[in-house]
Amino acid sequence: MFLMILILLLVIIFSYLPGQASALAKSIGNLFFSITDEQLNLRSQLRDLKMEQGSISITDEFARYMKLQRKINSFTDAIKKFDSTRTKQMMMLTVGVKTAIYVLHGLIMVYLTFAYKNEPLLQLPPEWFTPINKLVAFPTGVPGGVGVTCWIIICSSVVYRMKSFLQVT
Q: Which residue from 33, 43, 44, 91 has the fewest beta carbons nearer than 10 Å?
């Protein structure tokens, strides 16, 4: 009974984890891909240049205004370059986290299938499953027994249907 509940909980957890992969990747990314002092310095210089440009009249000091505009453009380009690199890193991290979740899910389910392939999780009267007795008992082969594979499929189906039902209402 414990194993049945454990498999159900694992299926529930792994059905919701991929949806949380981006939040998890964002937390990990903020830890590893934090904004450097150089980027903070560029941003503060850009802010100062914009304030200085805002205090200048374009009609009175056009040359100075345009010189500041060129500096602002170069700082903006440098910041965009840093941001695009960080965005690419975060996207790759999100894909990696999502892939790791799916691989971990698959490995756990394969392990459970092979570890408990000889014993049924639940023993029921064999006549309940008469036409599909061997499918329900797979891989144990015990008549009336519910195998791990069948239980994983049942749990996945129930969780999928509950998720779709809860999203509709």
A: 44
What is the value of pTM for the model shown? 0.73
CB distance 98 to 18 below 8 Å: yes
The answer to whether 82 and 34 have CB atoms below 8 angstroms apart is no
Indicate the domain borders of the chain: 16-115, 120-169
- Chain centroid to Cα 122, Å, comes to 34
Task: Please report, as a single letter, which amino acid is at residue 41.
Answer: N
Please provide residue 124's backbone torsions phi and psi, each rounded to the nearest 5 degrees: -125, 165
pLDDT in tens, 100-134: 999 999 999 999 999 988 889 888 888 888 888 88
CA–CA gap between residue 122 and residue 117 (Å, rounded): 13
Distance CA 129, CA 146 (A): 10
**Residue 125 tokens, joined:** 């009267």
Task: Choose among 50, 79, 30, 154: nearest CA to 162.
Answer: 154
